Amino acid sequence: MDLNNFTTVEQMEAETARLRECAACSGAETWEDRKKAQTPSCKFGEDGVCCRICSMGPCRITPKAPRGICGADANAIAGRNYLRMIAGGTAAHSDHGREICHTLHSTKKDGHYQVKDEAKLLRLAKEWDIPTEGKDIYDIAHEVALAGMMEYGKPFGTQRFLNRATDERQKLWNDLGIAPRAIDREIATAMHMTHMGNTADAEALVMQGLRTGMADGWGGSMMGTEMTDILFGTPMPKDTEGDLGVLEKDMVNIIVHGHDPAMSEMIVVAAEDKDLLDYARSKGAKGINIAGLCCTANEVTMRHGVRMAGNFLQQENALLTGIVEMITVDVQCIFPSLGPLSECFHTKFITTSPIARIPGSTYVEFHPETAREQGRDLVRQAIDNFDKRDPAKICVPTRKQPARVGYSCEAILKELNGVTNSHVDERDTYKPLIDCIKAGVIRGAVAIVGCNNPKVRPDHSHIEIMKKLLANDIIVITTGCAAQAAAKAGLLRKEAKDLCGAGMKRVCELVGIPPILHMGSCVDISRMMLLATDIAKDWGIDIPQVPVVGCAPEWMSEKAVAIANYVVSTGIDTYLGIEPQVKGSVQMMELITEGTRKLTGAGYIINTNPDTLVQAMIDGIEAKRAALGI
Ligand code: XCC
Ligand code: SF4
């Protein structure tokens, strides 16, 4: 095919420049302006050696002042700051997972929220020894939801989902003492350990980092994924589109942004109500267009095919188009700048969660009991806003790419085993994939995840790394903003097989999949842990031996640090394109790269140059192959 049909980063950047120019008249400011004002960034912060944990400080470590007032050295300070990031990330993912448990607990037969995937609910009930015989499906849903909530605060025992791991991993986690207990307890322990006057030993801080991360990946995030599938359906492959060109000039445009899909689902449903569609038409619009940003986009695209307007650093650009009637947000990754920016335009900015209150927004607190009506009301308000557009401020984007999304583990198994009904057969295995890897037709797999970060050229690292992996016959699975970078570039199309080496290309053609599989939002990295686990089980080896690695080329959030910790604990090497803020401690740098590898079989490989980073991944995968003798 014509390789010009892929969107390049240069084209994306040109579009951003055009939008910024268009909007300059209204005095709008975006992250590019603020990044300049923040440069150079504070060296102490960057190196992780500024401590403001107590009010004797802040203390900063320099060659002349190697210890804080209390005597904490660079290792203690960088280690504590690092663990606090993990606690923050685990809290965010896991609280999102808990919120979804509450939503599941609110389901009723005729309620606003219902159970969509009964089979998955029954499988989970069975896994958790919850009796189902002769019980109403909603009684089971409530019991499962409650059991899920208990994982956050139970006084004894470790996370239930750990049983899903390989026997080797479970034993190792117990031996190392990193099997997570109650999710909230691991977060509290991390906060307590890092309080003034507690742990100053970097190794102990790193170990609690692994355990806290595990409470996220094998606790709160997995909870989020499982409960969301039960509530809104387990994703199956779907066709959609990505990039700002999905915004429609002639339609009422509503953007859903954030992470928790409970609110956005109601808006998606309301946008299909006939009376609201008629109302939109009566106002001169051709229809109602819902588009997503960040992980909320991933959630609704995986289940409804809702189109993706873009990823993290594109959120302001969406408003610069001047054709967004409303942007509704739930939690996480929402720029406070959307407040003043929306005021430059007619755009209504709606916050919906007590977790994310932002000046310049209208606050509409979402509740399960009233969600349906609230969703309709917001859509109605967006329609009323359609004729308030300022023609002088309109700058319509046109670029978009087709994308295929929806690759849950269930979907991947179905594709591999050629099953066409929705029932996942016990006999389905990853054997066909394993055989391809053993034969060398596919060399291995890389999970590319995470955010955008202005410290590197946004989307460039994602896209260049993905292309190079495909050319080297390495299959890519992706979530989060990385997945949207792939969508914008056109890499989630089946035609992207033309970028692959001969082996991967043939597999894509035979199985009928794109070479990059969109597995969902960032909590769905839990799907990737299960994928790696089940591949290891079907192969009969432990996870660190499988030629699979993880990569976050442009990460920025605390959640990403929590993720990196459970991925490493699971035995998967993690390649980072942004340096963790611990450089001021030689011991911390050693612990997170080589130290953990001695314990869990995996560690970080850090390089800010995407070309060097991708080559390291290819070498890493080839080394794992060589060790297996394949
Ligand atoms: Fe946020 Fe999940 Fe990062 Fe994107 S990838 S910027 S965390 S939306 Ni998780
Ligand atoms: Fe300074 Fe120690 Fe207080 Fe940190 S905990 S601010 S290093 S005195």
Small molecules bound: FE(4)-NI(1)-S(4) cluster, iron/sulfur cluster
CATH class of the largest domain: Alpha Beta
CATH arch. level architecture of the largest domain: 3-Layer(aba) Sandwich
Distance between the termini: 32 Å
The overall strand count is 16
Helix proportion range: 40-55%
Structural class: alpha/beta
CATH fold annotation of the largest domain: Rossmann fold
Strand arrangement within the widest β-sheet reads 6-5-4-7-8-9
Q: Which sheet architecture does the biggest sheet show?
A: 6 strands, parallel
Please tell me the total number of domains.
Answer: 3
Radius of gyration: 24 Å
Total of DSSP H or I helical runs spanning 4+ residues: 24
What's the average pLDDT?
96
Low-confidence stretches: none
Notable characteristics:
630 residues, alpha/beta, Substrate Binding Domain Of Dnak, Chain:A, Domain 2, Rossmann fold, six-stranded parallel β-sheet, 24 helices, 16 strands, 11% strand, binds FE(4)-NI(1)-S(4) cluster, binds iron/sulfur cluster, hydroxylamine reductase activity, 4Fe-4S, Prismane-like_a/b-sand
What does this structure look like?
It is globular, with a radius of gyration of 24 Å. The strands form four sheets. The protein has a six-stranded parallel sheet. A six-stranded parallel sheet has the order 13-12-11-14-15-16, sandwiched between helices. A two-stranded antiparallel sheet has the order 1-2. It has 630 residues and is an alpha/beta fold. The longest helix is centred in the first third of the chain and has 32 residues, at 74-105. Helix 10 crosses helix 15 (371-384). Helix 14 links the parallel strand 7 (326-329) and strand 8. It has three domains: 71-232, Substrate Binding Domain Of Dnak, Chain:A, Domain 2 (Up-down Bundle), CATH 1.20.1270; 244-393, Rossmann fold (3-Layer(aba) Sandwich), CATH 3.40.50.2030; 402-628, Rossmann fold. It is built from 24 helices and 16 strands. The protein has helices at 9-24, 31-38, 43-47, 74-105, 118-127, 137-150, 167-176, 183-193, 202-232, 261-270, 274-282, 294-304, 315-320, 338-343, 371-384, 409-417, 431-439, 460-471, 480-489, 502-511, 525-539, 558-569, 586-600, 610-628; strands at residues 50-51, 59-60, 238-242, 252-257, 288-293, 307-310, 326-329, 348-351, 362-363, 401-405, 444-448, 474-479, 516-520, 548-552, 574-576, 604-606. The protein is 48% helix and 11% strand. The model has no long low-confidence stretch (mean pLDDT 96). Residues 51-54, 56-59, 68-70, 72, 77, 196 line the site of iron/sulfur cluster. The site of iron/sulfur cluster has 14 residues, from loops. [4Fe-4S] cluster 2 binds at residues 51, 54, 59, 70. One of its GO terms (molecular function) is nickel cation binding. InterPro entries: CO_DH_a-bundle, CODH, HCP/CODH, Prismane-like_a/b-sand, Prismane-like_sf.
